[in-house]
Every structure is written in structure tokens, then in C-alpha cells.
Amino acid sequence: MNPAFEQTLRARLLWLQVRSYGSLGFHQMARDAAHKAYWLVEELAVTQARCELPYATYAYPYGAKCPIILSDVPRLADLYEQAWSHEARVIEEEREEAAEQLRREQSKAYAIKCIERNDWKALDLPSPEHLSQELYAGRPMRVDGHFLDYEDGIV
């Protein structure tokens, strides 16, 4: 059987227990079953949000849409949709952070290669020799937003 459907069915059956226990006056048992159902629905939503599109067929059939078997229980349907939306935002933030990290690493690798081959123009920086000449001559320089000035006698 489909694992996502099995989990959905377990949550729905737990909700049936919630209703039954509640109507019989077993409120603690109803609360316990409700907590288990909430946990299953939230876990299902997170799993569905974490799935990638190529796998969104058999094991991940629901996506952002609440499973039909839960749609007539507003608490479970809302919980599923909220958990899925939250996890989708977290995933998007993780992807953006990973892309930014990759960009920084590529930029750093490019800078290291340019420094190794003394290609200062590619980095839009003056060569160390040119920088030293200008500063020793008493001419201040602005490099990448920083102001440099040579003062004799200061270590």
C-alpha cells in the first residue's frame, strides 16, 4: 500500500477514536488519540513538502493539497496545510541559503585563482607593488571601499 495513504488512514482512524472516546466520556484517551493524529498529520505534511517533483507520484501523492480523507475534519485539514506551508517556506530558505553559500564558495575560489596567477585586474584591485609604490609616495588610495594612507613611523 502507499505509505502516505497508510499514514493518512492511520490519522483518520485515530480521529475516529477521538470522536468515539469523547462521546463515551473518556476524555484523556480522546486527548491522547488527538495528539497522535496531530503528530501523524504534521509528519505527513512535512514529508510531502520535502519530496522532490520527480518522486511526487506514488509515495508523495498529496503535495500542498490536503488528503481527501482528512478534508472533512477541519482541524486535521488546517494542520496539514499549515505544516506543509511552513515546511515549504523552510525548504525555500534552505535552498536560497545553499545557493548563496555556493555563490560565496565560487567567488572565493575565483579570487584564490586570480591571486595565484597575480591577476589583480580581474579582481579590480591594484597589484601589491603598485599599492606599495603609491602609498610610499604619500598618495592615499581607495581599494574596494577602504581608504589606505601611509604614515611614516607607525607600525
Description:
This protein is mostly helical. The protein folds into two domains: 3-98, no CATH class; 125-155, no CATH class. It is 63% helix and 4% strand. The protein is built from four helices and two strands; from the N terminus they run H-H-H-H-E-E. The protein has helices spanning 3-24, 27-50, 74-116, 128-136, and strands at residues 141-143, 146-148. A hairpin with a 2-residue loop joins strand 1 and strand 2 (146-148). The protein is rod-shaped. The protein starts with a helix and ends in a 7-residue tail after the last strand.
Which descriptors apply to this entry?
155 residues, mainly alpha, 2 domains, two-stranded antiparallel ribbon, 4 helices
What order do the strands of the largest sheet run in, or round the barrel if closed? 1-2
Major pleated sheet:
2 strands, antiparallel
Which word captures the global form?
A: rod-shaped
Low-confidence spans:
none
Overall pLDDT metric: 89
In terms of topology, how is this protein built?
Elements: H1 3-24, H2 27-50, H3 74-116, H4 128-136, E1 141-143, E2 146-148
Antiparallel strand pairs: 1-2
Helix pairs in contact: 1-2, 2-3
